[in-house]
Request: fold
Amino acid sequence: MATHAPILSPSLLAGDHAALAESAMVVEQLGLPWLHLDLMDGHFVPNLTFGPETLAALRRRGLKLFFDTHLMLTEPHRYIEPFAKAGANLISIHIEPAYDHAAVLRRIRELGCKCGIVLNPGTPAAAIEPHLSLVDLVLVMTVQPGFGGQSFRRDMLPKLTQIDAWRHERGLNFRLEVDGGIDLSTARECRSAGADTFVAGTSFFRAPDTRAFAAEFAEIA
Ligand code: DX5
Ligand code: ZN
Reply:
């Protein structure tokens, strides 16, 4: 089993885009520590969301949440500094586009943030293996990125098991996060496979009672 206590990271993508600060405030007022922010460039994924100025504006509203920043960008290396300056705490970059991944991971840390590496459903675990010792978090996509509200890909569970096994064999301490189609039931399956950090967009923001959802989530440990 993973040694990290489970963290729920609600995805603001499923919040109210005309009132993002208020949606984020719901998370903060529940005492949840993390907020997941999805940045899309209309190129790496076929959708657009927001940018560094949105993070900065959320900080100006006084939000203290840990910003779990997921960059779905073809050229993430061009945007690391703006996101770090805007208030990101963790910056996760995808393995699929071609750039110097190790250098960008190091740069993220130099800027005072934690760093993560992300892999799409079609990308084998082996693709990120060389970077495991450089990261604070591995994010396994459990849907094809780009949109909220998709169905969980159960065939990603063996990938989690593999990455968790490497973590233990090598004495590494990164978090193992899942993103896409996560609800209380799929979170339990992912927890059993080694995940400890759970992005929830639709299941959180569309829950009839977000407080009850967070409380039930806390039980999956
Ligand atoms: C998808 C994003 C997710 C998204 C998840 O590309 O990376 O973070 O918000 O949404 P749900 O939880 O609705 O699948
Ligand atoms: Zn995401």
User: Anything to note?
Assistant: The two ends are 10 Å apart (CA to CA). Residues 11, 36, 38, 70, 179, 199 surround zinc ion (ligand 2) (CB under 6 Å).
